[in-house]
């Protein structure tokens, strides 16, 4: 009789441990999603990849060059006033690479279906549904880094 009770208690303990582990395994993904939801966007931004694209002297003032961030083409704009700005060079219509065009007014044009974007990346004509996404330019000394916004 005592052996039966001891065996029953041992089985109950095993079941308690098994259900406890099962509960932890079920709760872990939910806790992960909650943590991801409440993590501030600024903290996530710190995890974004930053890419060195060159030295500031490599980009003359008043010019636009296409550089690569990973495999993505990015328009690096060095304004006549000496400021750097960057926009994705992927057309927001179907993803062709846009080109800088000086005439009749400076803008970015897509040769695939004729979309045009102003120098701020705003879509001004053609089928492109959205502006060109911006990149953040980070100057560290003379080094120029880009990161996705
Ligand atoms: S891909 Fe640029 S307009 Fe269609």
If you had to describe this structure to a student in words, what would you say it looks like?
It is a single chain. The chain is of the alpha+beta class and about 150 residues long. The chain has 2 domains: about 1-40; about 50-149, Rieske [2Fe-2S] iron-sulphur domain (Rieske Iron-sulfur Protein, 3-layer Sandwich), CATH 2.102.10.10. It is built from 2 helices and 10 strands, in the order ααββββββββββ. It has a 6-stranded antiparallel sheet with strand order 1-10-9-4-3-2, with no helix packed on it. The chain has a 4-stranded antiparallel sheet with strand order 5-6-7-8, with no helix packed on it. The N and C termini lie far apart (about 70 Å). The model has no long low-confidence stretch (mean pLDDT about 90). The structure holds FE2/S2 (inorganic) cluster (FES). The site of FE2/S2 (inorganic) cluster (FES) has 13 residues, from loops. FE2/S2 (inorganic) cluster (FES) binds near residues 95, 110, 115 and 126.
Instruction: Provide the CATH top-level class of the largest domain.
Output: Mainly Beta
Second CATH tier, the architecture of the largest domain: 3-layer Sandwich
Strand content: 25-35%
Shape: elongated
Arrangement of strands in the largest sheet: 1-10-9-4-3-2
Note the main attributes of this structure:
six-stranded antiparallel beta sheet, single chain, 149 residues, four-stranded antiparallel beta sheet, alpha+beta, 2 helices, 10 strands, Rieske Iron-sulfur Protein, binds FE2/S2 (inorganic) cluster, 33% strand, elongated
């Amino acid at each position: 009789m005592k052996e039966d009770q001891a065996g029953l208690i041992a089985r109950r303990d095993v079941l308690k441990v098994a259900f406890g582990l099962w509960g932890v395994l079920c709760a872990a993904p939910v806790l992960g999603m909650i943590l991801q939801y409440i993590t501030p966007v600024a903290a996530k931004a710190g995890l974004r990849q930053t890419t060195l694209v060159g030295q500031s002297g490599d980009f003359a003032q008043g010019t636009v060059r296409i550089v690569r961030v990973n495999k993505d083409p990015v328009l690096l704009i060095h304004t006549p006033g000496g400021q750097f700005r960057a926009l994705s060079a992927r057309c927001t219509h179907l993803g062709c690479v846009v080109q800088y065009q000086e005439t009749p007014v400076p803008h970015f044009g897509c040769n695939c279906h004729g979309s045009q974007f102003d120098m701020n990346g705003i879509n001004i004509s053609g089928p492109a549904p959205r502006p060109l996404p911006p990149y953040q330019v980070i100057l560290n000394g003379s080094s120029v880094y880009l990161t996705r916004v």
